[in-house]
């Protein structure tokens, strides 16, 4: 560590101790202007044997315990680097150099799991519904959802998942280490919008190192750090993916893409379904051209909620159902009145009188009949011609034509029976 960086850190340590309570707010706002302070603090954290590590961790905890949001976010930006220092020291089995880091992380954890009154917090998370847009999906991208009784019953209902209460921890063990670290990453992801580019880069590096250490991909990445495999959990990887997704959308395309591939690589080896589901969903939705540059605003890529012009016109609503019934009743009335146009489709007129000629049946020639049956045969032939010509119409027009043909048959049969009875009475 250079003497200049050491001087900047020492000045920062002594400056905060002499501040009165009334000047803490203005001091927190002025931390952004100290551009050389943050890189110097990163160097202190990365050097496990530095003499400044313990006082730096103590002051970072004082920042977080003060309750000032700006000071708390200042401490949280170093969380990925602190996590990696803890995990690397644990893998090297040299716990004596990470005591101050463990105390800092446990102190932040114990402060976050309780409220202002000292009661245990119970965090709630709302699971998005497929019928409503969210950060993760748009109904228009999924397609039409079947309008069933179950879908209508669940429409507007939201499922809430609760987390907590969490137990206080006094030390790290093999059983509770990743439980605490996962909760700390959850707190970090809640403040992603305030994190600096250096913090997002540190998060991507943490994700890659944790995922590939001790595996063949470590040689491909040419990482010369520890070669011991680090035990991870599926929940921990999901929190890492959440931060990587934000980094991808805010200028860290190269590091974020590598980190996402490394986390998915580890999730495949460990067969973690949650991490695979979230990671593959994010990977399939990425569009390199749409990602923002480092100078752009802070955001996460989502699709805009569809406007009225993008909504399908075939959506089933109460108004459309009433309109459909009205059109159907109007069509029936038109067919009864004998209008040749049904639903905007012209129906050819069928002549049932004055038709004569020969018809072929079973290869024999038949003489024209004088009774009404020849009218019936010709009307059936005309009906067949109409059905052949109307193949291009929709199903509604076909059903109307079938009903018209049936009514024509009944009329012809009635005329035939009437003429036959008249001939018998004359005879």
List keywords for this structure.
4% strand, mainly alpha
Describe this structure in words.
The chain is mainly alpha-helical and 427 residues long. The chain is 56% helix and 4% strand. The chain has 18 helices and six strands. Strands 1-2 form a two-stranded antiparallel sheet. A two-stranded antiparallel sheet has the order 3-4. β5 and β6 form a beta hairpin. α7 packs across α10.
Brief write-up:
By secondary structure, the protein is mainly alpha-helical. The chain contains 18 helices and six strands.
Please write out the topology.
Blueprint (H helix, E strand, L loop, with lengths): L2 H15 L6 H7 L6 H10 L6 H13 L3 H8 L2 H14 L6 H14 L10 E5 L11 H4 L6 H6 L4 E5 L13 H14 L6 H16 L4 H5 L12 H15 L4 H18 L2 H13 L32 H20 L3 E2 L2 E2 L13 E2 L2 E2 L7 H17 L5 H32 L1
Antiparallel strand pairs: 1-2, 3-4, 5-6
Helix pairs in contact: 1-3, 4-5, 4-7, 6-11, 7-10, 10-13, 11-13, 11-14, 13-14, 13-15, 14-15, 17-18
What gyration radius follows from the Cα positions, in whole Å? 39 Å
Task: Give the helix proportion (percent range).
Answer: 55-70%
Largest sheet: 2 strands, antiparallel
Number of strands: 6
Put simply, the count of helices is: 18
The helix/strand class is mainly alpha
Please report the distance between the alpha carbons of the first and last residues. 130 Å
Overall average pLDDT = 74
Low-confidence stretches: 307-311, 338-393, 420-427
Widest β-sheet, arrangement of strands:
1-2
- Portion in beta strands: under 5%
Order of helices and strands: HHHHHHHEHHEHHHHHHHEEEEHH
Dominant shape: elongated
């Amino acid at each position: 560590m250079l003497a200049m960086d050491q001087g900047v850190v020492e000045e920062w340590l002594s400056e905060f101790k002499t501040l009165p309570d009334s000047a803490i707010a203005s001091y927190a706002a002025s931390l952004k202007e100290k551009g050389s302070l943050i890189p110097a603090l990163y160097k202190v954290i990365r050097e496990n044997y530095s003499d400044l590590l313990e006082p730096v961790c103590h002051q970072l905890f004082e920042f977080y315990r003060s309750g000032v949001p700006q000071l708390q976010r200042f401490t949280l930006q170093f969380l990925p680097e602190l996590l990696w220092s803890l995990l690397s020291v644990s893998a090297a089995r040299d716990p004596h150099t990470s005591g101050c880091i463990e105390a800092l992380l446990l102190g932040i954890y114990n402060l976050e799991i309780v409220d202002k009154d000292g009661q245990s917090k119970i965090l709630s998370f709302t699971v998005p519904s497929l019928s409503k847009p969210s950060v993760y999906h748009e109904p228009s991208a999924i397609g039409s959802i079947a309008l069933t009784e179950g879908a209508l019953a669940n429409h507007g209902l939201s499922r809430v998942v609760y987390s907590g209460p969490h137990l206080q921890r006094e030390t790290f063990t093999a059983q509770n280490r990743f439980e605490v670290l996962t909760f700390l990453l959850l707190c970090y992801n809640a403040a992603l919008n305030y994190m600096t580019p250096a913090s997002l880069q540190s998060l991507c590096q943490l994700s890659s190192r944790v995922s590939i250490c001790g595996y063949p991909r470590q040689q491909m990445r040419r990482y010369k750090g520890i070669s011991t495999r680090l035990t991870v959990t599926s929940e921990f990887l999901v929190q890492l993916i959440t931060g990587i997704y934000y980094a991808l959308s805010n200028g860290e395309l190269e590091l974020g893409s590598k980190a996402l591939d490394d986390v998915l690589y580890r999730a495949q080896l460990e067969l973690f379904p949650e991490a695979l589901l979230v990671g593959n969903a994010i990977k399939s939705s990425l569009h390199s051209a749409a990602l923002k540059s480092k100078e752009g605003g802070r955001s996460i890529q989502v699709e805009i909620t569809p406007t009225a012009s993008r909504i399908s016109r075939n959506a089933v609503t109460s108004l459309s159902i009433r309109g459909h019934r009205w059109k159907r009743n109007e069509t029936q009335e038109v067919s009864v009145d004998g209008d040749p146009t049904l639903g905007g489709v012209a129906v050819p007129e069928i002549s049932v009188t004055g038709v004569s000629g020969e018809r072929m049946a079973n290869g024999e020639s038949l003489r024209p009949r004088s009774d009404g049956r020849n009218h019936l045969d010709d009307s059936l032939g005309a009906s067949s011609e109409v059905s052949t010509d109307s193949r291009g119409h929709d199903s509604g027009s076909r059903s109307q034509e079938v009903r018209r043909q049936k009514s024509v048959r009944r009329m012809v049969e009635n005329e035939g029976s009437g003429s036959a009875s008249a001939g018998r009475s004359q005879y």
